[in-house]
Design brief:
880 residues; mainly beta; twelve-stranded antiparallel beta sheet; eight-stranded antiparallel beta sheet; 41 strands
Length: 880
């Protein structure tokens, strides 16, 4: 038996300060205190050239191993001698870093001489003189004292500053300096804010596996991680500003902002220089600028000539959205393998078995009504509200598809699903031990298998009503968020069939939960913690619902077709090319799959268009297409063929018998797709389908005319929405075009943008400008696919504008009947011209061709190598 023990230790340090202390130990040994030399003094003969006498403490001389006693000298050498400087006695000796400081018993006394021209210096130990008196001129001593005072002052200032820095992570503001004031016009103020986190820990695992050695059974791993969240705002005078926002946990690169801006004066040639995140808007509407760049930008002025240049890396992509009749039009293209996985579930096998029958009776639909549902999932978000201990059973209420036939007896076959359909519920309720939270009697004698027959969870969370929706006539639920891997899904259901009530599972209020002895709930399992496609529970997940990403979809303007990719002709057809099958040859797939049974008046007459029937073929609120058959590209499509062998070549049956990840690999069968377009809800709000849109990058046109932001429309750059606030434009019905930039979430292709603009202003009313832009994409490899070719485009343009006030226009308007105004009229004229020179990088040029080369398929991925040296690829060829 394998046992696993795991121990994890982790610690996080946000900040730390370390102090150091130094300890000095002093020792002075005097073997014979009376042997110290007597103090003597000598006054210099001339004040201009003083005579200085100095006698060191240690004057012992060592010869061999003996110490001779020189007259008047100490016979014992001090272990730690006191050093003085005999050449310059009024200066302190520079001791080695290994020497200890003088102890407190050593005192150096300085006093003014009676002549007031000299300082007398004397050194003593415990009031006993140990050196001759020294005389220093007054001016020299005063100069030395001043120097020491200045050094001590700055030393104290440095220590005070270091102490302040240790107490706070914010450095003090740098004081004004004359040089900085002249260059930048003021003080330097840099204020960083944020947090730095250091996380370290250790994982100790122990696995008691006798097949492993002791060193393999015990493993220890050191864990280390660091996080930084930094925000810096700074000003260098009144000309340079900086802003840095950096977070190591940022999901995308555009969330980290870095910018340094120099702003010149009005009379300077350099108007501004920007480094970091810059933008390059354009006055010429025919040339698209960019608001999301990273590089350097400069603006200059030479009299009436204004120049702007930029060299940067582009981090965004251009988008355009068209809105017709007040509603936004979107297109979609969904392949057959992209069904809405882990979100839509039948409440029991009974509802799945009758799904096709119920849909055939539309609009009468079914004779069932789901009246109450409680949905429970594995609690993965740590919520403490609406949680219970529960046991979900796969066979609860089932009849023919009971898996545990050994212990479960079916009471009624073909009847609606109910707790009394089989004897499982009665077994559970007659044994009180099954209600216990810690009970293990379910697995006694292998009666029920944990993870297969049931899933027991001590902490299941009940979903709120806004976290799922119910189709009460067809008997299935749709979750707002898909289930996570390893999460179980269980329900308690109450419904009626022809007025007769049935119940599956138990509701929370029917089984009180005692805090002292918690009682578990018995629920119906819809999905277990492990995915097994061979179990009947696999079919409870619906695989005939596709989400196209819309919301509040309108019937007007909705178009959808089911497309088949024909390998023979290389075309995309809305029918199956099978001339031998007269019943389906040339018939649209919409009709074959049940999506075209009515006309616009809901008469049973197919008209070739998608039947927009909310709740039946489409969920307009959530933007989902619902097939009225269980397996539209599998068994239901095969039933349309008279020749079943021929039908097997078209159907995509692995989509329903295997997991989605496995079915995607069946590329020879994945030939169907859903293509169409739709309009969202009519109104003033336009979704940009992007978040964190760069400021100023949104331009809105109505009927070809550029609108004004905050006058005709407003933009929520965070949520990515445009709201038309001009009622005249919103009610005009004109086509609205929205151009924007979207920060690329994931970009591995480098795009370089260089450009410049020159603008000459003759006056405040007249200007002429020219623009030059160059965009280059660097290919990752010389072999590029069709449709993914890198560009190298050069665009240039000219533009000019003239505007002036015109009294003549006001007088001309006043000649109209019933009009009399004194408002000023403005004459405005603007001309623009642009030209593009498209190209591609020379890296993808074919040596023998002038143009570039792109590949449809180089078949490099068609080869699957197998290394025969690896034993896991070897199998037995036959039974030995």
């Amino acid at each position: 038996m394998n046992k696993l023990f795991s121990f994890s230790w982790q610690s996080a340090v946000a900040s730390a300060s370390i102090c150091a202390a130094s300890v000095a130990i002093y020792a002075i040994t005097f073997a014979n205190k009376g042997a110290l030399p007597e103090s003597s003094s000598r006054i210099p003969s001339s004040p201009d050239s003083p005579v200085v006498a100095a006698t060191p403490l240690d004057t012992t001389k060592k010869t061999g191993s003996d110490t001779s006693n020189v007259a008047g000298q100490d016979t014992n050498k001090l272990r730690y001698p006191i050093k003085v400087n005999p050449d310059d006695p009024y200066k302190k000796a520079k001791n080695s870093s290994l020497d200890l400081k003088n102890p407190p018993s050593v005192q150096r006394k300085t006093e003014l001489d009676t002549s007031l021209k000299y300082y007398k210096i004397n050194t003593s130990v415990d009031s006993e003189d140990v050196s001759n008196d020294q005389y220093v001129p007054f001016k020299d001593q005063n100069k030395q004292d001043t120097k020491e005072w200045v050094q001590d002052y700055f030393k104290k200032r440095t220590q005070a500053q270091s102490t302040a820095i240790q107490k706070s992570i914010l450095p003090p503001k740098i004081a004004n300096a004359s040089m900085l004031t002249d260059l930048f016009g003021g003080l330097v103020d840099i204020q960083p804010r944020g947090t730095a986190e250091l996380t370290f820990g250790m994982d100790i695992n122990r696995i008691q596996n006798p097949n492993w050695s002791l060193s393999e059974q015990r493993t220890t791993q050191f864990k280390f991680d660091q996080k930084l969240n930094l925000n810096v705002v700074g000003n260098i005078g009144n000309r340079i500003k900086m802003g840095i926002n950096y977070n190591t946990d940022a999901s995308f690169d555009f969330q980290n902002q870095k910018k340094l801006n120099y702003q010149g004066q009005d009379d300077e040639i350099i108007k501004s220089i920007e480094l970091g995140d810059v933008s390059m808007p354009q006055s010429n509407s025919l040339i698209a600028g960019s608001q999301s760049l990273f590089g350097v930008k400069g603006s200059f002025q030479f009299g009436k000539l204004f120049l702007t240049g930029v060299y940067s890396q582009s981090k965004s992509e251009q988008k355009e959205i068209t809105v017709e009749n007040g509603a936004q039009r979107q297109t979609f293209n969904i392949t057959a393998d992209k069904y809405d996985v882990n979100r839509n579930f039948f409440l029991a096998q009974y509802f799945r078995n009758h799904y096709d029958v119920f849909n055939q009776n539309y609009p009468a639909m079914s004779n069932i009504v789901v009246t109450r549902v409680e949905v429970w999932i594995t609690n993965t978000n740590g919520s403490v509200q609406n949680t219970r201990s529960a046991v979900a059973f796969m066979d609860l209420g089932e009849d023919e598809l009971v898996v545990n036939k050994k212990n479960i007896i079916v009471n009624r076959v073909g009847a609606p699903t109910d707790n009394s359909t089989n004897n499982l519920y009665s077994i559970l309720t007659t044994n009180p031990s099954y209600r216990s939270k810690n009970s293990t009697t379910l697995s006694t004698n292998n009666a029920f298998s944990a993870g297969l027959d049931y899933v027991k969870t001590d902490n299941m969370r009940q979903l709120n009503p806004n976290e799922f929706s119910i189709n009460s006539r067809l008997g299935y639920i749709s979750l707002t968020q898909p289930l996570a891997d390893g999460s179980a899904l269980a329900v308690a259901v109450e419904y009626t069939v022809n007025g007769v009530k049935y119940q599956i599972g138990e509701f929370a209020r029917d089984v009180p939960n005692d805090p002292n002895t918690p009682n578990v709930l018995f629920l119906k399992m819809l999905r277990g913690i492990n995915t097994r496609t061979t179990l009947p529970i696999w079919n409870l997940m619906m695989k005939n619902i596709y989400s196209f990403g819309g919301y509040a979809v309108q019937p007007t303007g909705f178009r959808m077709q089911v497309i088949y990719e024909d390998n023979t002709s290389g075309s995309f057809l809305n029918y199956l090319p099978v001339p031998s099958q007269k019943n389906i040859d040339g018939i649209p797939l919409l009709r074959i799959l049940g999506l075209d049974q009515f006309n616009s008046s809901q008469e049973a007459k197919p008209d070739g268009n998608f039947d927009f029937l909310d709740g039946y073929t489409i969920n307009a609120a959530q933007g989902k297409i619902i097939f009225p058959v269980l397996e539209p590209f599998g068994a239901d499509l095969l039933d349309s063929f008279h020749d079943k062998v021929l039908g097997e070549t078209f159907v995509y049956d692995s989509l329903y018998s295997t997991t989605q990840s496995v079915a995607i690999q069946q590329t020879n069968k994945n030939k169907f797709s859903l293509r169409g377009s739709y309009q969202g809800s009519a109104g003033g709000d336009i979704s940009l389908n992007a978040v964190n849109v760069p400021q100023g990058s949104v331009k809105v046109y109505a009927g070809g005319q550029l609108l004004t932001e905050n006058v005709d429309y407003t933009v929520d750059y965070t949520l990515g929405r445009v709201k038309i606030i001009n009622p005249g434009i919103a009610n005009s019905g004109s086509v609205i075009r929205v151009q924007l930039e979207s920060n690329t979430l994931f970009s591995i292709q480098q795009k370089t943008l260089m450009g410049g603009r020159a603008e000459y202003k003759f006056s405040k009313d007249l200007y002429v400008g020219s623009t030059l832009m160059y965009l280059r994409e660097r290919p990752l490899t010389q072999k590029v696919n069709v449709g993914e070719e890198p560009i190298r485009n050069l665009m240039w343009g000219l533009d000019g504008s003239y505007s002036t006030e015109s009294r003549f226009l006001t007088q001309l308007v006043n000649k109209l009947p019933f009009i009399n105004t004194k408002e000023k009229s403005t004459f405005f004229a603007k001309a623009e011209y642009a030209q593009i020179d498209p190209g591609h990088p020379v890296l993808i040029n074919d040596p023998g061709e002038a143009g570039g080369v792109s590949y449809i398929d180089d078949f490099e991925g068609a080869e699957v190598p197998y290394d025969l040296r690896l034993g896991n690829y070897w199998v037995m060829a036959s039974t030995p």
